[in-house]
From TrEMBL:
This protein's name: Ketol-acid reductoisomerase, mitochondrial
Pathway participation: Amino-acid biosynthesis; L-valine biosynthesis; L-valine from pyruvate: step 2/4; Amino-acid biosynthesis; L-isoleucine biosynthesis; L-isoleucine from 2-oxobutanoate: step 2/4
Organism, scientific name: Pichia inconspicua
Domain KARI N-terminal Rossmann: 57-247
Binding residues annotated for Mg(2+) 1, in chain numbering: 256, 260
Top-rank taxon: Eukaryota
EC number: 1.1.1.86
NCBIfam families for the chain: ilvC
Length: 396
């Protein structure tokens, strides 16, 4: 049911001419292609963007072109960044800071998995790799990138080390916003800032290596020096961000917890399962149910939404598909909205935070997580997915 206009364009000149004439008659496609021509080739090419109008709402967005490397080096020349924790974000942010030439040290539990991983990545014990408390003592900017549960567990020991003159940095609003539950109450005499990359640490690193920057948000919790905002933006650039959106600690954590439980992960998984099960209950084969639920979504249609927008995706599909989808999306929205409202309330009242702390601070949390992932791995839908992936065109 899906016709790729992009593929049509690439075929023969005759076909291209036909496709172009069809695009000329379709406003959404035309607009998307026009936009392609006006988009910046690299983030470096647009400077000084500070306020951007998003559908009528003006928002503050900073960009890395305002912070070239020389300026970062000058700005942070007296700082030592003590990056605590070397998991997903510690790895990505730490290596990017190091490659940017900044003075960064890592603080992790001696002998633990992260300690070993840091050594493999070239951090040297006693030189730029230290036990956590030692790193904090040496640092002027303390970047708390322990897991959220670990931030809570270690806070009583770490808090006294975050003394006046240092800056405290987070990549998630979780710990301070839910301080009644996490007990992480940042000192009031230091700047407390946030830069939260919108992606995993692996992506923070891979985009940096490609010469691009991940999008991040930034926020200020405490501003004792009057420079906290500027420091947050500069640090966001230093860790490898491209565009940096202004937010608050509260908004960052509420939207993040909500989004990952909703459309980003939990919601989409639930929707895939529901659709697949109904197809199977009605006699469709596993491969047909999978292809119509996941494969076409992830391989054909979702990339179009990501690249050009929802209207483009509708426009690129058959009239039959388009009519049905236009009729059914309000039904899904109306039925799902109460679930999203319940979810948002559960985030706001701290229930999701408490659940996360309870689960992730168990000593055997990795084993418990593995049990749940094993259940997903063994679901028919995802076992079918493994086979379908082998048959993709690129594997022919
Ligand atoms: N992952 C993402 O995609 C992402 C994206 C944006 C923001 N963030 C935020 O970034 C921060 C770091 O997240 P992450 O995903 O990078 O964390 P993570 O991968 O879960 O990192 C865990 C780190 O915490 C350490 N740790 C765990 N328990 C500890 C304890 N009891 N004492 C001392 N160290 C302990 C681990 O060290 P050992 O190896 O020694 O156990 C490891 O270095 C969080 O605030 C998170 O919300 C994450």
């Amino acid at each position: 049911m899906y016709r790729s206009t992009a593929v049509n364009l690439a075929r023969t000149s005759k076909q291209s001419a036909r496709a172009l004439s069809s695009i000329a008659k379709r406003p959404a496609l035309r607009a998307a292609l026009n936009n392609l021509n006006t988009l910046p080739k690299t983030t470096q090419s647009v400077r000084g963007l500070k306020k951007i109008n998003f559908a009528g709402v003006e928002e503050v967005v900073h960009e890395r072109a305002d912070w070239p490397r020389e300026k970062l080096l000058e700005y942070f020349k007296n700082d030592t960044m003590a990056l605590i924790g070397y998991g997903s974000q510690g790895y990505g942010q730490g290596l990017n800071l190091r490659d940017n030439g900044l003075n960064v040290i890592i603080g992790v539990r001696e002998g633990g998995a992260s300690w070993k991983a840091a050594i493999e990545d070239g951090w040297v014990p006693g030189e730029n790799l230290f036990p956590i408390k030692e790193a904090i003592a040496k640092g002027t900017i303390i970047m708390n990138l322990l897991s959220d549960a670990a931030q809570s567990a270690t806070w009583p020991e770490l808090k006294p080390l975050i003394t006046e003159g240092k800056t405290l940095y987070f990549s998630h609003g979780f710990s301070p916003v839910f301080k009644e539950l996490t007990k992480v109450d940042p000192p009031t005499n230091v700047d407390v800032i946030l830069a939260a990359p919108k992606g995993s640490g692996r992506t923070v690193r891979s985009l940096f290596k490609e010469g691009r920057g991940i999008n991040s948000s930034y926020a200020v919790w405490n501003d004792v020096t009057g420079k906290a905002e500027e420091r947050a933006i500069a640090l966001a650039v230093a860790i490898g961000s491209g565009y940096i959106y202004q937010t608050t600690f509260e908004k960052e954590v509420y939207s993040d917890l909500y989004g990952e439980r909703g459309c980003l992960m939990g919601g989409i998984h639930g929707m895939f399962l529901a659709q697949y099960e109904v197809l199977r209950e009605n006699g469709h084969s596993p491969s047909e149910a999978f292809n119509e639920t996941v494969e076409e979504a992830t391989q054909s249609l979702y990339p179009l939404i990501g690249k050009y927008g929802m209207d483009y995706m509708y426009d690129a599909c058959s009239t039959t598909a388009r009519r049905g989808a236009l009729d059914w999306y309000p039904v899904f929205k109306d039925n799902l909205k109460p679930v999203f409202q319940k979810l948002y309330a559960s985030v706001r009242d701290g229930s999701e935070t408490q659940r996360s702390l309870d689960f992730n601070s168990q000593p055997n949390y990795r084993e418990e997580l593995e049990k749940e992932l094993e259940i997903i791995r063994n679901m028919e839908i995802w076992r079918v997915g493994k086979e379908v992936r082998k048959l993709r065109p690129e594997n022919n």
